[in-house]
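From the pipeline queue, job 12 of 40. The input is one protein chain; the requested action is below.

Action: predict structure.
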Amino acid sequence: KKTKGDPKPGQEEESRTCCGCRFPLLFALLQLALGTSVTVLGFLMAGISSSLLVRDTPYWAGIIVCVVSLVGFVMLCISYQPDEKTCVQFTVKLMYFLLSALGLVACVLAVAFAAHHYLQMTRFTCDTILDSCQCKLDTADPLGRTFIYQDAADCGSLTSMLNLYLLLQMGLNLITALVCLAACFVMWKHRYQVFYVGVRFYPLTPTECQQQKV
């Protein structure tokens, strides 16, 4: 026998759906915010010196994550159908999962490149020559590699600002990679069925209609 305090089956399903609906929206918002931050910071780093390589200014990782978040928002706008009954729903979910995995790989690469460059910067000995900053790892070695940063009139300000940007890139990309990993984990664990994706309508059964009339 059911007591008055026992929730109805429809209420249980609705509460479970509502609890799960926070996951994809939260991930999409976090990915959009973090991806935008990484992209803006990457373009700021590219403006410091024209000699910086693309791998050292990981705006590409931020753009990928922003695209992932947009796919997540599209996924929220699709009407929910249980058991993947629509091709569009399945395609968008699969695309979101694959792009999240791609964003994870891109962010990990960005962290590795930024960490490698930062370790080099800590051992550089730099001198300002004309409008460029020339740095060496070992000044005693005449055949050692020289790193040249163009459009830099002051080596001190360039190295300090670049070190700060590299640290920020490592932190932001690491957090973004964790968010993409969590998104992939949730999508895989729930098999695209447990949590809410889109708008779901619950049609009233004849029993519920009779109860409402009473």
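Job complete. Residues 22-122+154-193 form one domain.
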